[in-house]
Write a structure and sequence with these properties.
It is a single chain. This protein has ten helices and twelve strands. It is of the alpha+beta class. The protein has a single domain, classed as Sulfite Oxidase, Chain A, domain 2 (Alpha-Beta Complex), CATH 3.90.420.10. Strands 3, 4, 7, 9, 11 and 12 form a six-stranded mixed beta sheet that branches. Strands 2-1-10-5-6 form a five-stranded mixed beta sheet. A hairpin with a 5-residue loop joins strand 1 and strand 2. The termini are far apart.
Length: about 300
C-alpha cells in the first residue's frame, strides 16, 4: 500500500471532521435500510458504522493528526516525526510474541492479524502536554489479539516494545530515552474494551508518524502510554519498567491515568487545548476530565487504589 506523505496529500483528499462524520451517519442509515451485506457491497470497506465509543466532539483534521506528533524515535519536535518518517517502510513487519503465552512465535504482521476484524473508533487522545486531539483510529480491540494468543493464567502484565532501528529512526541515535521504547499494561487494562491496537487513522492504514503499522491506544491514559511501531509483545508476571518511568520516575508512572486533580511536577494537568484546526479552539482552554471522560469504562479497575501514588 502506498502511504502518502502529508506534503503529498492534496487538500481535496483530506477528510474533514464533518465529512467523515456525515459518511459514518450515511453508512449507519444504509446498513439499517439495506442490511449489512448489501451496504458492505456498496460502500468503501474502511468506513465502518459508528460505534458507542464515538464522540460528537469536533475531530482533529487529518493534516494536524499527521503533522503534529509526539514520537521521539523520529525527533523531539512536533513536526519532526512527519518529516523524518517519510521513507519509513511499514512492510515487511514482524511481531515477536513471548513470555507466559501458549502461542509464542515471531509472526508476520499479516499472519498475526489474520481473522481479526478492523473497526474505526473515535477517541479523545491526550498527550503529556496541555493539548489534545479527537482522532478516528483504525484498528481492533487488544483483547481480541490476547485471546488469540492465549496467555497463561500466571500472566499479570503485558509488555510492548518498539522497533529498534537507529538507521531508520533517527531519534534513536540520541540518548533522550533508553531505547527501544517500552510500555506496558496490567492484564485487566489490556483486556478493557477501550484498549485498541491501531493500524492507522481515518479509516486507512498508516501513516508511520502516527505509529503504524501497529500502536497501542488507551484513551483514558496520557499519550506517552501509546507505544508505537510495536515489534514485541511479551506476557509476564512482573510489572514492566516502562520507558518514561525509567527515565524520570518521579514524573511518569506506570499507570499514567488522566487525572486533572494531580499536577505534573512541572505543569498543571487541569486543563488542555483542543487541536481541531481552529485557532479559536486552540486558544481556549477546556477542563480536562477524569480518565479523559471514560470513567464509566475504566474506573472499576482502580477501585481502592490511591491514584496520587499510583500515577
Amino acid at each position: 500500500m502506498l502511504i502518502k506523505k502529508p506534503s503529498d496529500i492534496p487538500s481535496s483528499e483530506i477528510t474533514s471532521e464533518s465529512a467523515y462524520r456525515n459518511r459514518r451517519q450515511f453508512i449507519q442509515a444504509a446498513t439499517a435500510a439495506l442490511g449489512a451485506t448489501a451496504a458492505g457491497a456498496l460502500l468503501p470497506a474502511q468506513l465502518s458504522a459508528a460505534s458507542k465509543y464515538d464522540t460528537d466532539e469536533k475531530q482533529t483534521p487529518l493534516g494536524n493528526v499527521t503533522t503534529y506528533n509526539n514520537y521521539y524515535e523520529f525527533g523531539t519536535g512536533k513536526d519532526e516525526p512527519g518529516l523524518n518518517a517519510r521513507t519509513f517502510k511499514l512492510r515487511p513487519w514482524t511481531v515477536t510474541v513471548a513470555g507466559m503465552v501458549k502461542k509464542p512465535a515471531t509472526y508476520n504482521l499479516e499472519d498475526l492479524l489474520k481473522g481479526i476484524t478492523m473497526e474505526d473508533r473515535i477517541y479523545r487522545m491526550r498527550c503529556v502536554e496541555a493539548w489534545s486531539m479527537v482522532i478516528p483510529w483504525h484498528g481492533f480491540p487488544l483483547a481480541t489479539l490476547i485471546d488469540k494468543l492465549e496467555p497463561l493464567p500466571s500472566a499479570k502484565f503485558i509488555k510492548f516494545t518498539t522497533l529498534y532501528a537507529p538507521d531508520r529512526m533517527p531519534g534513536q541515535r540520541y540518548s533522550s530515552l533508553h531505547w527501544p521504547y517500552v510500555e506496558g499494561l496490567r492484564m485487566d487494562e489490556a483486556r478493557n474494551e477501550l484498549a485498541l491496537l491501531a493500524t492507522g487513522v481515518y479509516g486507512k492504514e498508516g501513516p508511520a508518524q502516527n505509529g503504524a503499522p501497529l500502536r497501542l491506544i488507551t484513551p483514558w491514559k496520557y499519550g506517552f502510554k501509546g507505544v508505537k511501531a510495536i515489534t514485541k509483545i511479551e506476557f509476564t508476571d512482573k510489572m514492566p519498567l516502562t520507558a518514561w518511568a525509567e527515565a524520570i520516575p518521579n514524573e511518569y508512572g506506570f499507570y499514567a491515568n488522566v487525572n486533572p486533580t494531580v499536577d505534573h511536577p512541572r505543569w498543571s494537568q487541569a486543563s488542555e487545548r483542543r487541536l481541531t484546526g481552529s485557532v479559536l479552539d486552540q486558544l481556549k482552554p477546556i477542563k480536562t476530565q477524569m480518565f479523559n471522560g471514560y470513567t464509566q469504562y475504566v474506573e472499576r479497575m482502580y477501585s481502592g487504589m490511591d491514584l496520587r501514588k499510583n500515577f
